[in-house]
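ingest -> validate -> predict -> emit
validate: passed (alphabet ok, no gaps, 191 aa)
predict: started
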Amino acid sequence: MRDPGHDDLRQALQALQAALRPHTAADWDVPAGTLDWTCRDTAAHIAHDLTAYAGQLAAAPDDAYLPCDLTVRPEATTAQLLQIITAAGGLLATALAAADPALRAWHWGPCDPSGFAAMGMAETLLHTHDITRALDPAWRPPADLAALILHRLFPDAPTGDPADVLLWCTGRGDLPGRAHRTQWSWRAARG
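emit:
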């Protein structure tokens, strides 16, 4: 299987918009799934992480995250919050498209562009799943994108439906015959 890239991130962002845009009038101050964050806070977190990943790729630090954060103003509407996610995702997709495949930037070790693409996709789709627990419980991450995330970030993942396996790997779902995960981490760094 191939590593993910900028076009895959753009597809994840389209999936987020399709899932969340119909619910902009809903109450986004309710908890996002089992998270301690609200749906609004979770959406702001998506934008923050996408921006942070773009910054890492652009600056290519080798020992830490850049000391900056994205702040979403409290008066931003839910529709504007979705636009902020689009902007942040666009920045990351552009940085991914421009990045030399040999580039390494820090994410708990040296991480290549495909790792940042996979992490951006994971943050986008997993947190969309969290938000939809309150807004549209039937939503699931697209299987083809989940498979790319598993390939790149969870190389030891069990076989099965990629969306189910991704949710299990991140403590958001159960798989028959396997204990529910309460702790997990992904492997984005590559030497």
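Helices lie at 6-20, 39-59, 78-98, 113-135, 143-153, 162-169.
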